UniProtKB/TrEMBL annotation:
It comes from the Bacteria. InterPro entries: DUF1697 (IPR012545). SUPFAM superfamilies: SP0830-like. It comes from Pontixanthobacter gangjinensis. It holds the Pfam family DUF1697. This is DUF1697 domain-containing protein.
Length: 181
């Protein structure tokens, strides 16, 4: 089964990791056909079919053990990634580099999402919507100036996550389709 892993905290905040080194290590841990897309912790691979959570834990453990980097890892199949892109309500009218999805460890609770929206009210023009094990955000004025940070979101939702913009997700999905062709 082909998967994509989104690793958080890679090549940001001093957590430097060469994708070549990551690919090499993963090949020794029963990950096959390992490829990376962009140097920010997007890994395509094939692996024996299993629960995404278990594969994510294995990846996170490997990155911590081999590189001393604690990283949240979200693993999705090709179809799960396509569904996440399709369910993003801002994909049609937002700019691909401003529309993000934060892949989460679990489903965001309805109450937690409503609290996040209320807590962020008046702090920016971002649009926020819950997704399947995801939170979709349109950073209409740009990510760099936003007060809606990953830490703010994770604290409010009580869930770990890592975000990617629509441009990156579409690129990754296209790469998955190319590899499976």
């Amino acid at each position: 089964m082909r998967y994509v892993a989104f690793l958080g905290s890679i090549n940001v905040g001093g957590n430097r990791l060469l994708m070549e080194d990551l690919r090499r290590v993963l090949r020794y841990e029963d990950f096959d056909d390992v490829e990376t897309v962009v140097a920010s912790g997007n890994v395509l691979f094939t692996h024996a079919e299993g629960p995404s959570e278990g594969i994510a834990e294995k990846l996170a453990w490997t990155v911590n053990e081999e590189f001393d980097i604690e990283s949240f890892v979200a693993v999705r199949t090709r179809d799960e990634l396509a569904a996440t892109i399709a369910e993003n309500p801002f994909a049609e009218d937002g700019e691909d580099n401003f529309v993000h999805t934060m892949f989460l460890a679990d489903e965001p609770g309805e109450f937690a999402v409503k609290s996040l929206v209320i807590d962020h009210e008046g702090r920016g023009n971002e649009r926020i919507a819950a997704g399947t094990k995801a939170l979709h955000v349109d950073y209409a004025d740009g990510v760099a100036r936003s007060k809606l940070t990953g830490d703010f979101i994770q604290r409010r939702l009580g869930l770990s996550g890592t975000a990617r913009n629509m441009r990156s997700m579409k690129r990754i999905l296209a790469k998955m389709d190319e590899l499976d062709a």
